[in-house]
Amino acid sequence: MVGETVLLDGEVAATAGLPAHQRLLEALDGKRQMPFPLAGGAMFHLGSSCREEAGRWLPNYVNPTTSTRFDAFMPRIIRELQLTSIGGKGGMDNACVEAMKDAGCVYFSMPGGASPLLSNGVAERIETGWNDLIEQFRLSRFRLDGFGPVTVAIDAHGHSIYHTLQEQAANRLPDILKGLEEARRSIDLRRR
Amino acid sequence: MPITYDIVRKAARDLYGWSLKKVPDDTLAALAEARTRETNPASQKTLDFMRAAALAAEREDRHACSDAGFPTYFVKVGTRLTLDGDIRRAFVDGFADLVATIQPPILKFITHPLTLERSYEGRDMPILSFDILDGADYIEITCSPKALGSGRWADLKVFSYPKIAEIEEYFMQCVLAAGSQHCPPVVIGMGIGGSFDHAAKMAKRATLRRIGSVHDDPMVRDMETRLLAAVNRTGFGPMGTGGDTTALAVHVDYAHGHGFVPVAVCFNCWINRRTTLRIADDGTVTRVE
Fold this sequence. Notes:
The complex is a heterodimer.
Chain A: E1 5-15, H1 18-28, E2 42-53, E3 56-64, H2 74-81, E4 85-88, H3 94-103, E5 106-109, H4 115-119, E6 122-129, E7 139-154, H5 161-191
Parallel strand pairs in A: 1-2, 2-4, 4-5
Antiparallel strand pairs in A: 1-7, 2-3, 5-7, 6-7
Chain B: E1 3-4, H1 5-20, H2 25-37, H3 41-60, E2 72-78, E3 83-84, H4 87-101, E4 110-111, E5 118-119, E6 127-133, E7 138-143, H5 148-151, E8 155-160, H6 164-178, E9 186-193, H7 196-208, H8 218-231, E10 247-255, E11 260-268, E12 275-280, E13 285-287
Parallel strand pairs in B: 1-3, 2-6, 9-10
Antiparallel strand pairs in B: 2-7, 4-5, 7-12, 8-11, 9-11, 12-13
Helix pairs in contact in B: 1-4, 2-3
């Protein structure tokens, strides 16, 4: 349900890079191999840095990146891979919300800038693909264990907290501007 | 003893490194204060999580955000001191030192604007801004890393003979355009007047002012108070998922100009990364924050 706060367990593909999104579209066109299967899975807009310890890749830090950067790519990716969840920050546009509705996909909003606690919910990085790219641009596969709390900000029925809040703010704007005018007037009167 | 290249190089390295792993005290206090006013239960939790994460970053020497952005340095140079060596170069080399030594390492964020190629260095990097402090015998340097998350929502519009209402309406349009996306609650800076470049610089510098500090002009003080209340009526809330706290502060500055009035608006995300130190003429370094 939109607004619900949850902790996440399981596997997720993650990237913070435009090039990885371009390559995903090329893979969907059959022009490139996927580094690992994504269909039916979760995909996060997430920057990350990891270190190797005793043969495992552990997170130094992870943090969401702005999802709207990828709006142009995501509708096809969501529909054709039938993704079940997206994660990131700031939400996505209406075309993405429609694609999510078609695929039965939800969007998790993660707190940005809270990396020390968010990273604690990443158990390990299982693998990375497209390793010619810089670390945060690669397609990485993570195992999550109690990741979050994250907020369900777009559901699979076309409800988007971002759309609602944007509409609410636009509706409130005339009143807000009136309030500013009244505040200016009361200061003028006080000074007289 | 003059202020040397070596001292400034180390200062540039330290300031950037500190800024990545600590949320400033004024910002932590403002978050705590916002928590007492926040009425949305989910947003209360988000604010609690933010504060706990910020404290963990400092306590455990960890990055607050995965995005180190790029460093910008604001340098105020006193007129009663002696400099020795290549001071501009010291900032470039100090930045390189930080990249080479910080643990865990930072990722590549310096982006060529035309090719989008990423690196740890680049033209005009780090971004430097200099000012003169008449009569002072020290240099004061503030480092404020900047990244896309909140950086992309900055805006500037040039008005001619605007009414205050028009300026404030434009400010609100900028707030609505950024919406949920700039990692709120944010600190918002607005620069009014002067020239095109000066308005942008004033807006940026306004974001660096300590939260809770007051402007010396009562007209600006009143504007800041009413604009902060206005922003927090929009309802975007912490991380833009709804609530009463969209901004922690609105800081405004102005300069006299001509009939044309540039108005610049910019945002700092909630971690509000900022560190400052002073270097005295005898080379003594004092961390201010």
